[in-house]
Design brief:
Length: 115
């Protein structure tokens, strides 16, 4: 996937989303501070703050003043549902069309990651 045209805060949001969905940050877990995550990603702290704010706006993280940002209870489930919907509505149609165009059916797809 080409991410060059995507705003940096959205790319950072995808990194955080993947970390939550992969279980690196579970519901209730503290997220890295804005400064720590910015340093880790080589990003501007204001850009990281914007990514974190978008999660807060979506109710996926909560702020505990003086302590930090935490993954909200139920966030993993809600995030997985949001990502599934986005995939099915935005990503899958182009993949399905490309498959149709080159003659790949669902039966042609590997059934496990080792195929």
């Amino acid at each position: 996937m080409n991410d060059e045209g995507k705003p940096v805060y959205l790319r950072l949001r995808e990194i955080i989303s993947a970390s939550i969905l992969d279980g690196e940050y579970q519901d209730g877990a503290i997220l890295p501070s804005v400064r720590a995550f910015a340093a880790q990603q080589g990003a501007n702290p204001l850009t990281v703050a914007k990514a974190y704010q978008s999660f807060q706006d979506d109710g996926l993280v909560i702020v505990r003043r003086g302590i930090g940002m935490f993954v909200a209870d139920g966030a993993t489930h809600r995030l997985r549902n949001m990502e599934r919907t986005r995939f099915l509505q935005q990503t899958w149609p182009a993949i399905a069309e490309h498959m149709r165009r080159i003659g790949i059916t669902l039966q042609d797809l590997p059934t496990d990651r080792n195929d």
